[in-house]
Amino acid sequence: MSSNVEINEFLKILQSFGSTSVVQWILRVLTISQAVFQTGWPENYEISDGERFDFIVVGSGSAGAVVAARLSEIPEFKVLLLETGGDPPPTSVLPGLSRTLPGTKYDWNYTAVFDEGVGQAHPGGYMSYPRGKLLGGCSSINYLIYSRGVPEDYENWNRIAPGWDWETVLYYFKKLEDMKDPLIFEHPENARLHSTTGPVKVSRPKTPPSTALIDDIRIQSYEEMGIPRVLEINGPEIVGAARPHFNIYGGRRSSTAESYLKPAKDRTNLKVAKYSTVTKVLIDPGTLRAYGVQVYTSSKTYIHVYATEEVIVSAGTFNSPKILLQSGIGPQEELSKVQIKTLVDLPVGKNLHDHQVIQLNYKGKRGLETALQNILTAFQIDTIPSPLQIGFFRVNGSEFEYPSKLQPHFQFFNSYYGAGASEDLVSGCSLEKDFCLALGSANVNNELDTVLLALLHPLSRGEVKLRSTDPLDDPIIELGYFRNDYDLKVVTEGVKYMNTLINTTYFKEVKASIPKLSVTACENIEWGSDEFWECYAKNTVLSVQHAVGTCRMAQDGVVDERLRVHGVARLRVVDASVIPLIPSGNTNAPTMMVGEKAADMIKEDFHKRKKENNKDCPGETVL
Ligand SMILES: Cc1cc2nc3c(=O)[nH]c(=O)nc-3n(C[C@H](O)[C@H](O)[C@H](O)COP(=O)(O)OP(=O)(O)OC[C@H]3O[C@@H](n4cnc5c(N)ncnc54)[C@H](O)[C@@H]3O)c2cc1C
């Protein structure tokens, strides 16, 4: 038994002793030490040129790790999982440190560009767009918020790609979930949406009374604005606000590396090759059948490994289209620009969409008491220490009928900063210098609420393209925000509505105000006018890193409803890139759900093929 397992067992015993503060502290120290002295990740497998497997999965992220782990449940399947990155570091495991990961070696460090006249408050006209480069992919570096979207999101998928209706996907959402919050099961309407039997842990960590009060005041304010207080953000309501659930349990991040790959690490039929970058899919030009992949290894050589059954590309919204394009699958017009011969002409890289967000700031109470809040939270690295409230709402008006009334227009993330967190705010601010400095100044003596207002259903689309034929070159990411005027109209309405927060009881009591942050592009517009907020939104726009859609699942898309690439046999894409329409919430859980459903479809199709060929059917009973 490894020391990690022993510590885990000990932690479980301690947890059963309840919540005295001494036990809490012992737990905290042990959890942190367990994250720092890591063991338990799958061992690295050194692949050799010419090796054969049944299934090759490219990328171990939110979807890829799920697919590889589920396929390897069938002992007869030989599965290879290829991943560019390595093991998650302690900063990934400990939830309170998640914000330190973007920009490090655990991030692909991509930059994404705005169209002319958009995002002008971003120096250089581009912004960093983090993507996890490690076991678990983005699920190992994200902000751990657990949100699934609403039923109508999936009914819409189902209209485009049959088989993805709400009741079907709910089965997979429940299959992946281990809900640790007992409160949910006290309410039948909520309980039916959740499960305790899946591998991914979900909890709402307890907060100290001072933090709970801050949460409560904000949720009360949103209630006054007409956004109801709800039990949870994955409940039966379409709109409402609550403290969110997180993919955290026992002080650890429940990434797909933690919840799927660790438990599968001793299976001899699953090999995990780290530091291995897939540069293209090998496709027979005569039969158009995928038969393997080209890999750039840690020793800087290119090798080939072969798949007798299927290649599954799960490299994420930017890298999956890149790999397909490098393999000759994509728009002929784009491929010819970089002199790649087109094998199959498909809209790869198109349909990029995202939850673009507008950061709004509200300056509140003055004084030492709120500054103390920052000190209280600083040591709680085994949880999400800062107060955070999440809500969903629709704006009124017959001109805002898209999306349907069964979906919210906006999601918002309200973070609270006690006075004096300015340095944090300034260093985390990527906009023009004067804007960031003014943001910091607003918080020197006063608490500050920053609200990230996310447009949930944009009509604008961007695109991912190849920069060159060099497979190690970063792709071009054109965000395409606000290409459709409707998006800016809805966003401006949402911003104006959100600004009424300062008219609610608490914010009025503390004489809250909206700090005047300078945006050069809007200098000549009257501050606070509708025109100003439109300009502010267009130019300070950010992202919550929910990019999807570049290998769209649709008849006229890149993959069919079983995620098979149109026109190419034995090749699937399984990750956020297949999402045809972005859901009303964060994208990690929906992507894990896609992985779960895909694994079942791959197993089914394998058995179907074997039956057709009249051969033995290993593992059929598993289904
Ligand atoms: C900073 C940040 C915060 C976020 N916060 C949240 C949140 O709080 N809640 C939420 O629900 N969602 C959040 N998201 C979004 C969510 O995590 C992603 O939508 C989701 O994880 C995407 O999963 P994926 O499987 O498509 O891709 P990924 O998880 O990115 O997986 C792709 C994997 O493939 C590997 N890979 C890529 N190219 C290659 C190659 N050529 N060869 C081999 N391996 C390769 C990558 O290294 C990576 O491990 C956040 C994302 C980020 C980056």
TrEMBL record:
Molecular function as annotated in GO: flavin adenine dinucleotide binding; oxidoreductase activity, acting on CH-OH group of donors
Coiled-coil residues: none
InterPro entries assigned to the protein according to its UniProt record, in alphabetical order: FAD/NAD-bd_sf, GMC_OxRdtase, GMC_OxRdtase_N, GMC_OxRtase_C
Cofactor requirements of the protein: FAD
Domain (Glucose-methanol-choline oxidoreductase N-terminal): residue spans on this chain: 316-330
Claim: DNA repair is one of the keywords in the record: no
Binding site for FAD: V278
Stored SUPFAM superfamilies: FAD-linked reductases, C-terminal domain, FAD/NAD(P)-binding domain
Superkingdom: Eukaryota
Keyword vocabulary terms for this entry: FAD, Flavoprotein
Entry's family note: Belongs to the GMC oxidoreductase family.
Protein name: Ecdysone oxidase-like
Organism of origin: Spodoptera frugiperda (Fall armyworm)
